[in-house]
From TrEMBL, chains A, B:
Pathway: Amino-acid biosynthesis
UniProt cross-references to Pfam families, sorted A to Z: Aminotran_1_2 (PF00155)
Domain of life: Bacteria
Protein name, per record: Pyridoxal phosphate-dependent aminotransferase
Keyword Nucleotide-binding (UniProt): no
Family indicated by similarity: Belongs to the class-II pyridoxal-phosphate-dependent aminotransferase family. Histidinol-phosphate aminotransferase subfamily.
Cofactor(s) demanded: pyridoxal 5'-phosphate
GO molecular function, one term: pyridoxal phosphate binding
Domain spans labelled Aminotransferase class I/classII large: 35-357
Keyword Transferase part of the UniProt annotation: yes
Length: 364, 364
């Protein structure tokens, strides 16, 4: 092979997540319940499904590279201007782009130990260094993250609120206070993928014009459109415009843009999702308790459950659930890895889980 | 704004192409005929449309990050193994990734003067240098490209066969011979976006295992699925695997993957497209001649026409066509810019063009 350039040559061929389809191919059979990827089993808005379906015959046309109408709809939804909006191929894609914009080889970035691995994947991709602060009581630790950013001279500080994989959250005011103590030259990446599912007051009261923060949202969680790969960021216009320097300008197809606009228009569906999530969280918590697991409080579309022992035990439980046909995931490092993480399911999926969990525990 | 890292800070906020939607917003009315982006007015396979539409209600699920089934279908189509296949968000997205993998700041890459701008956009994005060789008789010039690559120590040599924007092509054997004279350490990027529309023998007889070449294909042209953003590359397995280091692993949604598989399965649609293109090229050539323009031979889904004078004249004609409601594009540098480039249209679009072109010429 002709040699790669030095930064990629030094990277491992790593994959941020193994998909459930890969596990199914290894097992030789499909999962009965898909509860590991924090997808929305409540499903997308019927308006989005209809828009996607109606746009199928128009798939011969490229999407608008400026995503004018989609950005206008997002801006209206948030009470900002389209110049505050960046759209892209999921938060994953946007995290990659912000790392392209902000990180040079040897720069530092800060996250929490066990937080979203795709951020670390993109930091490594730039030849930059990722430093991580431990969680504190199953929450990301604002003070530790800030101290680490100061100590390393970090260019980026990543925090998710609500958090994945623990499901915990901070009041939005805590995040806003954090922003006030960022070291100079450090941009806060605020991942609010799950904020539509969180209690009132979780959304950080930070204006889109604040140059210290870029916040990320997605259509993959509350909007139930993970399969479309559509995310966006809100930030100051000059930073938003800088994405034009590195983004895949025609990366968002026409059907995807139309489906996103339709999804945003369906406020009733979002309300329905919230009510559904409230009930599904309660039932998932009950299933956990019925089996001797401790459900952690959740501000998301999943419930993380303390399995009561260590990572080896939780891993064995996860694998036993897989053998019972239930796909779930778990945090990586200790002490988070005493837990398994189960996405909210519909009645069918939760019935399967309720039946499978005691059987999985009996396998251990 | 918090400062960007040095490479992006030095980049212009450039856009490879202005979309027709932007032009429509400026004009305040839609185009009557969309003949500028080399989309397929023949449209996608009904099987692909049906697959996309049927997948809409499954859009809550992420796509398989390994795109196993799609890669298997592509591999079968080409008689290679899935390990020779990379899939991504259009050829545009894949060109960005190959630049990430191969180029460091200050490296050189080679293309033709007036060839596909998005390649140059991604080269610049890495802080690398783009050198370009002139076309020769409206064809990319293999010898000049090779000489330039040798002189600059280029890491990448880009050539499209058939070519965009001129519509010309070389026999595949010429490209294979070119490969034999690449300087050491230089990877050839062979863009075959239009090859399904080209004469027999245009596809380069280069095995996928050849470490000196990576070839790019798309669902945007012959398959009529530009709005899905689905492209792929064929190359040696070790290079293919290296894309895992930098790609957006969940970047291809589930509906897109399913539509791609369905499109590949419809051989009759591809045959129909070829017959349609043959007729549409003939009619487009006749429209050109009827108006005193000289159609260049085309191996693509567009016809580039010599408007008989210089770039100023061709630009004025393009703008006059826009005022008549017809969206077309034109090459950038001289002497290519004596031409305008018109995509193949259906009867409706070509009827509009036939009526608009004399009116546009009369405006000059």
């Amino acid at each position: 092979m002709i040699g790669l350039s030095p930064i990629p040559a030094a990277l491992p061929t790593s994959v941020p997540f193994t998909g459930p389809e890969t596990l199914e191919r290894r097992m030789g059979r499909p999962f009965r319940a898909r509860l590991g990827a924090n997808e929305s089993l409540y499903g997308p808005s019927p308006k989005a499904v209809a828009a996607l379906s109606a746009a199928a015959h128009e798939a011969w046309m490229y999407g608008d590279p400026e995503a004018h109408d989609l950005k206008a709809a997002i801006a209206a939804h948030h009470g900002v201007t389209p110049s505050h909006v960046v759209v892209g191929e999921g938060i994953d894609g946007l995290l990659g782009l912000v790392c392209r914009l902000m990180l040079a080889q040897g720069d530092h970035a800060v996250t929490s130990q066990g937080a979203y691995p795709t951020f670390g994947f993109h930091v490594a991709g730039m030849g930059a260094m990722l430093d991580s602060a431990p969680y504190r009581d199953d929450h990301e630790d604002p003070e530790a993250l800030l101290a680490l950013a100061r100590r390393t001279g970090a260019r980026l500080l990543y925090i998710a609120n609500p958090d994945n994989p623990m499901g915990s959250h901070h009041p939005g005011a805590t995040i806003a206070a954090m922003r006030d103590h960022l070291p100079a030259g450090c941009l806060m990446l605020l991942d609010e993928a799950y904020v539509d599912l969180a209690p009132e007051g979780t959304e950080a009261p930070i204006p889109a014009d604040d140059p210290r923060v870029i916040r990320f949202r997605t259509f993959s969680k509350a909007y139930g459109l993970a399969g479309l790969r559509l995310g966006y960021a809100l930030c100051a216009p000059d930073l938003a415009q800088a994405f034009d320097k590195v983004r895949n300008h025609f990366g968002l197809g026409r059907p995807v843009q139309l489906a996103g606009i339709a999804a945003l228009s369906d406020k009733a569906h979002l309300e329905g999702l919230r009510a559904w999530a409230h009930q599904a969280r309660a039932r998932l918590g009950q299933i956990a308790r019925d089996n001797g697991l401790i459900p952690l409080p959740s501000a998301t579309n999943f419930v993380t459950m303390d399995a009561g022992r260590d990572g080896t035990h939780a891993r064995a439980l996860l694998e036993a659930l897989g053998q019972e046909g239930v796909f779930v995931r778990m945090p990586g490092p200790a002490p988070l890895n005493r837990c398994i993480r189960i996405s909210l399911g519909d009645t069918t999926a939760l019935d399967i889980l309720a039946e499978a969990l005691p059987r999985a525990l009996a396998r251990l």
